[in-house]
Amino acid sequence: AQSVAQPEDQVNVAEGNPLTVKCTYSVSGNPYLFWYVQYPNRGLQFLLKYITGDNLVKGSYGFEAEFNKSQTSFHLKKPSALVSDSALYFCAVSAPNDYKLSFGAGTTVTVRA
Amino acid sequence: KAGVTQTPRYLIKTRGQQVTLSCSPISGHRSVSWYQQTPGQGLQFLFEYFSETQRNKGNFPGRFSGRQFSNSRSEMNVSTLELGDSALYLCASSLREGSPDYGYTFGSGTRLTVV
What we know:
heterodimer; A: mainly beta; 6-stranded mixed β-sheet; 4-stranded antiparallel β-sheet; 12 strands; B: 7-stranded mixed β-sheet; about 0% helix
């Protein structure tokens, strides 16, 4: 069985400060890892993914994430947060030939001006 | 190119009725999967189809069913609706694993309210 843990329900940061959203996962085999963002009453918007290759992945809107196999983590980071980054963030994992995503519970990010 | 299209956006149904939701994937995507999002349970996988075949199914009662057509469009059906079925239903489409652009693109969802 595969699972994702997002240990923080909420993250609050000031605009211009670094933003980190934590994610750890459990899966059999090599993981496919994803980050999505959701704004109110909207679907999930893709930010970035790790499938294979470089452990540091760069994505949309200045976000990046680092795949750490030994710690089974895939934390999302942004060097300088914007007020418009305030949203709900989901980490998800899939396994080869499993054809489904397992999501974390989500982390609400609030960036104050 | 056009994204994943889900219709309708909003739906209100009465307990005991049935409902059909539609999802049109990105052109060229042959995999379509469905997810239910509720405040209490979060995002849960319902099922996935590829070339009209269901390849995986989540832990939902048999009242939840789906199908995929030859043009990759998919529908999901919920029969005998219960209040607890009120949720945002999200559809995602994907290229096959191993494709350079493999990944899941989600639609805007259908908000189902059961009264």
